[in-house]
Amino acid sequence: MTEIEKLNISESLKLFEDGKKLIPGGVLGIRRPYNFVEGEYPIFVESGKGGRIIDVDGNEFIDFLCAYGPIILGYREEEIDEAVIKQIRDKGFCFSITQRYQNQLAEKFKELIPCSEMTIFVKTGSDATTTAIRLARAYTKKIKIMRCGYHGWHDWCVEVKGGIPEKLYEDVYEFHYNDLNSLEDLMSRHGSETAAIILTPFGHPLAQKLEEPKPGFLEGVKTISEKYSTVLIFDEIRTGFRLSLGGAQKYYGITPDLACFGKAMANGYSISAVTGRTDIMKTGEKEVFISSTFFPNSQPYIASLKTIEILERENVLEKIWEKGGRFFGKVKKVIENSNVGAELSGIAPMFFITFKKDAQKIYKEKRKSFYTQLIRKGVFMQPYHHGYIAYRHTEDDLDNTVIAIEEAISYIQDKFTQ
């Protein structure tokens, strides 16, 4: 068992201590150190290029977290950035009225996404899912919501309830992914009052194995939504423009009434969308108020149009599936040849390495040791969140990562079988 030298992250730690005096928690939410391995992972990044990042101490990493999903191509994509810079320099981007690019992007959505007839563009995933819920409630004149998945930080769905009155989420009920019985049970009691069923079409629960839909699951959810005249919403914030250009709905062949997109649609620029049936979307004309000073800003529209152009032109998703599939297969062999309780789940573009739970909770120590070894080897993954394959991850990046995973597994094998 060879112990790898700990990284120097002294500047990150200093900035974090300074930050705690200025920002609640030093940095916000999921980027806080306790969501990684405290004392091992960098806290502040300096730069990124392609599939790699460099922290403020000069450590370089192959980055599989991809900014929690927006980076589908790579960091600092020159063609996208130049298009945005040109827009800012030549025409501007923040005005009292709207520039033409919203129409162009909405047309592109209509071309690519099965459910898309009309679209509303907002800024974040939470904006999109909350807009979809508001539209569904206005359209159906019902209140209750059935949910499955992570849908953001807004009052109706956030997991941490501090500062939120119970009445703001008391009509929201959770069902389990790939468990039609749990949904059917809820709907048998609340179906006549239910405005929407919202779920992630590909299962990615926090810190748990990724799940593809079992045969008949998505079809069953759609049948239930139709039975109760409930709006079916796919939360495609992570799967959109990653599983396919038309999202998981295109990939799995199930068309919802509404869908929410974000993250990969603009390779890091801040934009998200709700798209779907005209009759539901048109409640956004008068019945539902949706407005923000910054929603019409055109830099992210330009970035999204250029990102989609590159995705189409270079067959990016096909190549991600190919290289991700090879990587997935190699990692799977490494894990199958070990007996440390590691598990690989997911699909080629999105993967996660977890550890089987045990009564003594040794799996937590294994997880900590595993991800400590990876970060020290220059591989940036998150212990509680799945990873992504980006277009700019090279074959060398992926092969070196397989080697790092194999060595980390071997380290755990030695450490926990002594």
UniProtKB/TrEMBL annotation:
Family of this protein: Belongs to the class-III pyridoxal-phosphate-dependent aminotransferase family.
Name the UniProt record assigns to this protein: Glutamate-1-semialdehyde 2,1-aminomutase
Pfam families given in the database record: Aminotran_3
Natural source organism: Candidatus Scalindua rubra
Example of a GO MF term: glutamate-1-semialdehyde 2,1-aminomutase activity
Keyword Isomerase annotated: yes
Swiss-Prot/TrEMBL keywords: Isomerase, Pyridoxal phosphate
Cofactor(s) needed: pyridoxal 5'-phosphate
Enzyme Commission designation: 5.4.3.8
